[in-house]
# Entry
Amino acid sequence: MPRVSVVVPCYNEERTIAHLLTALCEQTYPRGEVEVVIADGLSTDRTREVIAAFASQHPDMQIHVVDNPARNIPTALNIAIANATGSIILRLDAHAIPAGDYIEQCVGALDAGLGENVGGVWRIHPYSDSLIARSIALAAAHPFGVGDARYRYSSKAGLVDTVPFGCFLRETVEAIGGYDESLLTNEDYELNARIRLNGGRIYFTPHISAIYFSRATLPELARQYWRYGYWKFRMLKRYPRTLRARQALPPVFVGGMISLLLLGLFWRPAALVFLSLFAVYFLTLLAVSIVPAARAGNIMMAFGIPLAMMTMHFCWGAGFLYSALTNIFRDR
# Structure
């Protein structure tokens, strides 16, 4: 069987890193053919102590920790890959829990020639048991919240634009120059864009699955989606043909709403249009939130889910617009 190197970017993950390592320890793939390379951004909490304790309790697991002074994800991944020895690279996060057959399913999909990069679905779980954390998890797994990002909810296998994490031959990523360290977010999407531009295929299958913990609070979610939008523009500037409708809609919507709001300060009809559109938007979010809230057993989440979706939409769109505007003014 081919040797698999699991590469993990990590920084201050003392609460979750042991869950990941436990899941990797329990994989169906032969343990002797798996190594875990953790690129740690010089964590200031107990992350390294937790890793060391786990490694001492499981001496048959090959766990290596390397430093990532840059403290960003793409650099961490390149450092981890440079220190990896496997012919297959499997990228995971420190706050994810892969299913027991995750590695086996990934290697099987690669062996079957289904794609040059293969990945699966996120089973999104709340980071805590609070109402808003549970609402955020449902919003992050809902098509109305994330558009056509199939890896968050789909049960249909096939070729896609991107997959979370991903598993690929080492030679595939080396041939295209590794992860782009100038993009601090969207590194997976950008890597997959280059794979596709070089004739490769990205394959999604729900048979590959991992638990992913969403953000716990709205401010954390806001920062995350602002960052997503900001760096998405930077990536699209390089690869404009990769733009999708779901990515264009938030900045168009946010830009339009801001314009109406500002115009409404001087022209009453614009204010009325703004209020009407916002009412329709909010009521739509409320309507699509009722069923998931009822399934979760807490109807109050029908108000929390719209708040999470609004945070995602507006922060993603605003981050994208801010990135575009600063880019325009900087180029002048």
